């Protein structure tokens, strides 16, 4: 069990293709208690490695640097905090957001290849709403020079969804709408 947990915690380093990583395809396969190294398993691991590499490359430069420091160099939150001069709780939140972006990027692939269905953004009030498409259209056509208040009022009036903070809309627009646009 401990070996599986280690693999889970280091999945980016193992599957992201870091050249300093000493794991081989056969060691990854054997760690999942799969004694048979089938050619289809090797192809599947190669495909998975490629997708994780693409996902990491899709991140912004600071996020890629964080992934490199945390997963490839093995630095902890405290060490990265001291190195960057940012507070440790900010680093921890940044880590969570970065992993969430990777999860969103990889969710379609994981569902298609492994049949694991990721609930579509269960923490997002807008994505879990039945009126998500209508709200997305309202957000997309908003005037960028104005505040979010008119958008929040229109969403409440048309869809009945009450948004308490503009941060909900900003986060939805930044993380979820881009994913939905990529799907289309």
Structure explained in plain terms:
This protein is an all-alpha fold and 184 residues long. It has two domains: 2-114, Arc Repressor Mutant, subunit A, CATH 1.10.10; 132-183, no CATH class. Helix content is 67%, strand content 0%. The protein has ten helices and no strands. α4 (39-57) crosses α7 and α8 (132-140) runs antiparallel to α9 (149-159). It is flat and about 50 Å long. The termini are far apart. Residues 1-9 and 19-37 have low confidence and may be disordered.
Could you provide a short overview of the structure?
This protein starts with a helix and ends with a helix. The protein has helices at 2-9, 11-15, 25-31, 39-57, 61-72, 77-84, 88-114, 132-140, 149-159, 166-183.
Give the terminus-to-terminus CA distance.
40 Å
Total helical elements = 10
CATH architecture field of the largest domain: Orthogonal Bundle
State the CATH class of the largest domain.
Mainly Alpha
CATH topology of the largest domain: Arc Repressor Mutant, subunit A
Run of helices and strands:
HHHHHHHHHH
DSSP strand tally: 0
The rough form would be described as flat
Give the low-pLDDT segments: 1-9, 19-37
């Amino acid at each position: 069990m401990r070996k599986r947990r280690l693999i889970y915690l280091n999945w980016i380093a193992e599957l992201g293709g870091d050249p300093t990583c000493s794991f081989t395809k056969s060691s990854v396969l054997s760690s999942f208690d799969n004694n048979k190294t089938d050619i289809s398993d090797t192809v599947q691991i190669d495909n998975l490695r490629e997708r994780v590499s693409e996902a990491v490359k899709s991140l912004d430069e600071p996020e890629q640097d964080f992934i490199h420091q945390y997963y490839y160099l093995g630095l902890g939150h405290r060490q990265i905090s001291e190195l960057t001069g940012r507070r440790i709780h900010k680093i921890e939140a940044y880590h969570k957001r970065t992993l969430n972006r990777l999860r969103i990027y990889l969710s379609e692939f994981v569902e298609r290849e492994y049949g694991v269905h990721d609930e579509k953004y269960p923490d997002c009030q807008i994505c879990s709403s039945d009126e998500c498409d209508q709200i997305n259209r309202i957000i997309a056509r908003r005037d960028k020079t104005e505040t979010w208040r008119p958008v929040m009022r229109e969403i409440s009036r048309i869809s009945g969804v009450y948004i308490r903070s503009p941060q909900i809309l900003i986060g939805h627009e930044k993380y979820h709408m881009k994913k939905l646009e990529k799907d289309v």
